[in-house]
Amino acid sequence: MVIKKDQPIMTLLIAFFLVLALIAIFVHFCASEAKGQTPPMNPVNIDWTVNPLALYLDIFDTYWQLQRLSAESDTVYLTIDSLAAHKDTLHGRIDSLDSQTDTLALEIDTLRLRVDSIQTSRDSIFFAYDAAGGLLITSTEDDTVSFDTEVRKDAIYVHAADGKAVACNSAGWYKVDYSVGLKNATGGNLGLVVSQLIRYSSGWSTVLGTRSYSTLSASTLSYANLNASVCVELVSGDSLAINVTNNVPADNAETVAYSVRLRIEKLH
Fold this sequence. Notes:
With 268 residues, the chain is of the alpha+beta class. It has two domains: 113 residues; 141 residues, Jelly Rolls. The protein is 37% helix and 32% strand. It contains two helices and 13 strands. Strands 3, 5, 6, 8, 9, 10 and 12 form a seven-stranded antiparallel sheet that branches. Strands 1, 2, 4, 7, 11 and 13 form a six-stranded antiparallel sheet that branches. The longest helix is centred in the N-terminal third of the chain and has 71 residues.
């Protein structure tokens, strides 16, 4: 904020000193008349040490110096205001840069999370199938299918020696896809066959939403495919496997080579 000089007061002061100077000149003139002296009219011969006119001229010169100083002070105040405005602008730019820095930090954190997620996804897949086939499903009790060929098994998975169960040694959500190809092995009327994903966590239990149903007619050319896809949350150390049930045990169903598959992927 520029503090302006009080111009009306300055003008009154100058006028006051001017009146005093005129009064002094008048008094000096009257004193000279009283002494019978002729007042000096030629400025060159005036004694400035006693002539009030010198005071007037000094006051007049001082006035102009004050005016010049006032103008210079106004310039200084304007410069100060300009610097203050620049300072405010710089503060605004700094705040804007701080905000941009925070935004960039959040974006960097998001990218890191994505990279971690991609890395986790790259290192969290199990895929295997059964190349042999020929597993007879002979009972109304659950028969667990096996997978003899591993296509991919990342470090968080442990595949049982008998090829049946797969342990997941990292807690989190998993996507599980399975498929079981069956055929009628004896030609009898098998009727209903059922598959389901089972989970071992302090005991085996069915993973809800994973059952698949089909029927096999009375022909050795009768085939069925049981499959499901599900997301399941696991605790580290939980195991997964696939069970198949034959509702007519007198006649056998049989797994088809290369048609029994299991794929597990950790989501996060």
